[in-house]
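Recap quiz, item 2
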Amino acid sequence: MTLTHLQRLEAESIHIMREVVAEADNPVMLYSVGKDSAVMLHLAMKAFYPSVPPFPLLHVDTRWKFREMYSFRDQMAEKLGMDLLVHVNPEGIEKNINPFTHGSAIHTDVMKTEGLKQALDKYGFDAAFGGARRDEEKSRAKERIFSFRTAQHRWDPKNQRPELWKLYNARKHKGESIRVFPLSNWTELDIWQYIHLENIPIVPLYYAAERPVVERDGALIMVDDERMPLKEGEVPTMKKVRFRTLGCYPLTGAVESDADTLPAIIQEMLLTKTSERQGRVIDHDSAASMEKKKQEGYF
Amino acid sequence: MAHVSDLIATDIEQYLKAHEQKSLLRFITCGSVDDGKSTLIGRLLYESKMLFEDQLTAIEADSKKWGTQGDEIDFALLVDGLAAEREQGITIDVAYRFFSTDRRKFIVADTPGHEQYTRNMVTGASTADAAILMVDARKGILTQTRRHSYLMSLLGIRHIVVAINKMDLVGYSEKTFRTIVEEYSEFANQIGLTKVTFIPMSAFKGDNIITLSDKMPWYHGTTLMGYLETVEVDDTRLQRNPFRMPVQWVNRPNLDFRGFSGAIASGVIKPGDRIRVQPSGKESHVDRIVVHGGDLPQAVAGQSVTLTLTDEIDISRGDVISTVEAPAEIADQFETTLVWMHDEPLLPGRSYLLKVGTKTVTATITDIKYQVNVNTLEHTAAKKLELNAIGVCNISLDRAIAFDAYQHNKDTGGFIIIDRMSNNTVGAGLLHFALRRSQNIHMQHVDVDKSARAVTKGQKPCVLWFTGLSGAGKSTIANLVEKKLHAQGRHTYLLDGDNVRHGLNKDLGFTDTDRVENIRRIAEVSKLMVDAGLIVLTAFISPFRSERRMARELMEDGEFIEVFVDTPLSVAEERDPKGLYKKARRGELKNFTGIDSAYEQPENPEIRLDTTGLSIEAAADEVIEALKRQGILLAD
C-alpha cells in the first residue's frame, strides 16, 4: 500500500504538531481565517483526536478583515470547541491606523507584526503555529519548519537549526519562542485538493459571487463597508468576483470569476497564469520585503 | 505534461479524483556549481508547469539581462535566489522546491554545492528517497562527485541516479558516457552503492529529461522523469520491516480513553497484534487504531495514528512500541557515525543531549575512533570533530534506549546532538550497533549503601567543587576547609592537581579535549567517594560550564556544592604564585585559562567567595557555615 501525497503531507503535519505540544510549555495556533488556516486547523483536530487540540487559537486582528471572515471565524471556534483569542494592537486603535491613510506597509507593521508580538508576550506563548508554505515565494523555500525567535521576537537567520529526519529540536531558553510551520511542504494545489477531499469549510469569499468592487491601481478592491473612502469618480460596481487569498479587504485584490464550486476554483487555479501572491499588495511594497519583515518578527 | 492535462478543462472532477491519489517522492540533487543543477531543477519546474506567467515573464526578462544562455530561457535563474541571500549573510542550508506530474508530487531538496556542503547535504539527504548526482560529461567523475556519493551512501539513500549532464557539449558521445559509467561503477562498488542508474542528458536542451532524445539513439534506458515517477518510495519499503512506533504523546481526553499517538516508523499494525513497549519490555495487544473519522483496520509506515491497548500499562513519550516478533534492540552504549554541524567543535567527554525518535537522553562521546576524510575516504586519528567533520565515535548514554541500526530504520537509528548550554543542534548521527560491554555490564546491587555509610560518620556526603582562575586561591582555601573539617572529626578527601594530574590523569594535557576528560574523571572519582560517604573537596580551574554541569548531574540533588572562588583576572595575574601567567603571556604556555583559553563563570554557584575582600581564614569559615546551613554536618 503506497500512501498518497496528501496522506504523507497530512501525517507529517500531524507529527510536527504533536512534537510541539509534547515539548513546548504554552503553544498557540495563529488563525488568520484563510484557506491555509482552515487546513491547519483541520489537521490539528485530527492530530489530537479524540482530544480537542490542547492550545487556543489566536487571531491577530487588524479590524480591516472582510466582514464574512469575522463571522466565519467565530462560527468555527464555537463549532470546534476551541478557545479563540483575538488581539488588536491598542496603539493601532488609538492612532486609528488604517491602510488608507497610513499605507499598507505601516498598517501591516503596526497591526500585524507589532500586534502579534504583543499578543505572544501578553499570553506568554512559547510556540506559535503558522500556516506559511515554502512554495509561497523564494525566501520561504529555505525556511525551517521550526523557526527560532529571540526574546525580542527577532529572527536570527544565522542561528537557525538544521532539521534532519523527523527530529525537531524544540529546546529554548526562557523568553525565546518558536514559530512552527506545519504546512511547510504543502503547495497551493495540495491545499485545495485537501480541502476538496476532506470537505473542509472555507470562507465563502473564495467562491465567486456578485460583489461591489472598484478598480484601483489595476486591482479590484471590494467595498466591504462604509469605512472605505471612495476617490473622485469611483463608483462601486457589482461584478462576479472571488478572492484567491484573503487579508485586509482594502489590500486584497479580487479576480473576476465564475468559479462558484470547489472543483471550479481548482480548475480555474490550474488554468490560470499568475501566481497566488499577485493579489497581495504587501509584496509589491519593496523587493526584499518578506525577508525584512520576517527578521522584524512578521510570520 | 502535468497540468496541461485536458481533463482540467473537460472533467475537473475526474482530474481531482486521479490527482488526489498521487504518491510523493522526495529527492535531493547534488552537484557542484557548474554541473547544471539549477538548470535541471528549473527545467523540471518549467516542464511540470509549476511556473506562472508572471514568474515566467520575470525570468525571461532576467534571462536577457543576466542569463548565460543567449536568447533562450536560463532556467537556473529560477532557483538561484540563493546567491543573493548569501550576500545578505543568511545561512542557507537547504532550499525545498515542489513540482508534480500526473503520477507523483515531488519535493526537491536543493543544497548549495560548496561551503557547508557536508552539513547541508546530510540535512537534505536525511529525508530523501532518492538522489540525483550531477556529473558534467566534459569533466567526468570529480572529487566532489565522490564526496557526494559517500554522503549519499552514508545516509542510506537507496536509489541513486547519476545524471551525466551536458551531453550536448560532448557531441552526444556514447563513448564518453560509457567511460564515465565504468569509472563510477567501480567507485560505487567500493563504497557499497548498489542501485545506481545512469542517464545521459542535457538539462539545458531537455534531452532525456521528459522524453527520450533522438540525439542519443544508442541510449535505451529510462528518462529522468520516467525514473522519478516510478522509483520506490522509502515509506513503502519500510512497510515490510518490523513494526515500530516511537510514542510522541499520550492522548487522555478523559478517564475512559488512553491512547498513544505517534508516527509509524516501520511495518504494519492491526488491532489484535501483540506489541512490546520498549525499553520497559511490557507486552500487550493493540485494541484500536484511532483516527479522526473512524477507527482504521490497519495502519502502515508513514502514517500518524493513535493506538489503544488491551491492557493498562505505563507508557510515556519516548517509549517505542514494537512488534513482539522482532522487537528493537536495547542498549546504552553504541558505535555511531557522527556528522558535526557547529562552529564549536565536538569534545569527547563533554555531556550533550541526544534525541532519537521521540526520546531525549544525556550522551557522552567516549571515544573518537577515527575521522573520515570525505574527499579521499581515508581514516585519520582525531581528538575532536570540527564543523563538517565526520567521525566514527563511541557514545555512552545515561540510560538504555530502544533502537535499530540506522541502515535498517532511519527513524529509530538516526539522532541529533543538542548542546546543553546553547540548545543548538550541533551534530547528527547514525547508530550502528550496541557495544558488547553495554549489553553485559549490569549495576551490581549492594546492601550497604551510601546513606548507611554516611550515617556512621555523622555527615551527609557531598562534593565541594571549587572553581576559579589559576591563582584564585582554590587549593589554599580548600586545604584550610579540609583541615577545619578534619579537626571536627569529619571524614574528607581533597582532590587537587597534585594528586590527580600526576597519577590518574597523567596522560592528559591542557587542550580543550583533555580538560573535558580531566574533569570527567575527577567527577566520576568524586562520585565514588561520595558513594563511600565522604565529603569530597575538588580544587580545579574547571573552566567550562558544561563540565561542571555534567559533574553536578552525576550527583544526587543537594550533593553538589559549587564554590566559586571569585578572583578577577588582574588580581590572580598579579599574585601569580607559580609564575604561570608570566609564562603564558610570553607564549611559553599554551591554552592557559584566562589568557588564551576561556573561563566560563558559574551562573548560580551555591557559594561565592570574593577573595579580594576576604581573608583565607574568613573564606574557609564561610564555607563551613554554608555546610552547616545545608545540613551536611549532622551531629555538630
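Residues 99-123 of chain A form the longest helix (25 residues).
Chain A touches chain B through 67 residues (CB under 8 Å).
End of item.
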